[in-house]
Each structure stands twice: as C-alpha cells, then as structure tokens.
C-alpha cells in the first residue's frame, strides 16, 4: 500500500472520529441563527469559514469513500485539525450548550456535548 493510500485511510478514520454529527443534523444546524452568528469570514462579511466548512462536510459525507478527491481529503484534514485544536481549548465551564465555543465546533461537524 502506498504512503498516499495510508495517509487517506488515516484521514478517513480521523475525520470519522472528529465529525460526530450526521449530514442531516449538520444541515439543520447550519440553518440556525446561532450557526451563522459565530466565526469569521475571509472578506469581513458574508459566510463564515466554519459555516462554509459545514456545507463542505455535508457534501463529503454524502460521497462514497472511493469518490473522494484530493481536495476532499485536504478539507477533511483541515476539519480534523480544527476540531482537535478547538477541543484542546476545553471550552467554557458554564453554559457549554449555548456557548460560541460549541456553536463554532458544530459548524465544523462536531458537537462536544454528544
């Protein structure tokens, strides 16, 4: 097995662990005001990076593994990195459910309260 195939298998596994929301859960979440209220946008307005990532995650989750592209795997790796970094911050001690910390993670497909 080539290094690239091993790398893809690892990314696939890591992504599966990091993204604990189903496409339907994520789609519903992305339609909420809370989802759109967190994060930053590259151009200072419009859709945030996390919100865009959530839409991309839905696309990826609807694909068969064999149909995933290099761009898909690059985004999957980005998602895993974001989720791991954000979880390392531990989040707030109170009101975790309604916190921007949780809402931001959910835009990236991870609900820390699950």
Folded structure, characterized:
This protein is an all-alpha fold and 114 residues long. The chain has one domain (3-107). The chain is built from 6 helices and no strands. The protein has helices at residues 3-18, 23-30, 33-37, 49-61, 70-88, 100-107. Helix 4 (49-61) packs across helix 5 and helix 4 packs across helix 6 (100-107). The protein is globular.
Total count of strands: 0
Tell me roughly what share of residues is in helical segments.
55-70%
Mean pLDDT: 92
Strand content: under 5%
Let me know the largest β-sheet: none
General form: globular
N-to-C CA distance? 35 Å
**Number of separate structural domains:** 1
- SSE order, one letter for each helix or strand: HHHHHH
* Uncertain spans: none
What is the overall number of helices?
Answer: 6
Structural class: mainly alpha
From the structure provided, what is the oligomeric state, counting identical versus distinct chains?
single chain
| Cα radius of gyration in angstroms | 14 Å
SSE arrangement:
Elements: H1 3-18, H2 23-30, H3 33-37, H4 49-61, H5 70-88, H6 100-107
Helix pairs in contact: 1-5, 2-4, 4-5, 4-6
Which descriptors apply to this entry?
61% helix; single chain; 114 residues; mainly alpha; 6 helices
């Amino acid at each position: 097995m080539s290094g690239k195939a091993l790398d893809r298998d690892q990314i696939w596994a890591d992504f599966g662990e990091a993204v604990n929301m189903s496409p339907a859960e994520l789609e519903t979440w992305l339609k909420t005001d809370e989802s759109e209220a967190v994060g930053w946008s590259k151009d200072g307005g419009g859709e945030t990076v996390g919100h865009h990532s959530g839409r991309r995650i839905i696309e990826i989750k609807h694909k068969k593994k064999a149909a995933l592209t290099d761009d898909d795997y690059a985004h999957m790796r980005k998602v895993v990195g974001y989720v791991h970094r954000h979880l390392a911050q531990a989040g707030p001690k109170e009101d975790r459910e309604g916190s921007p910390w949780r809402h931001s993670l959910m835009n990236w497909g991870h609900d820390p309260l699950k």
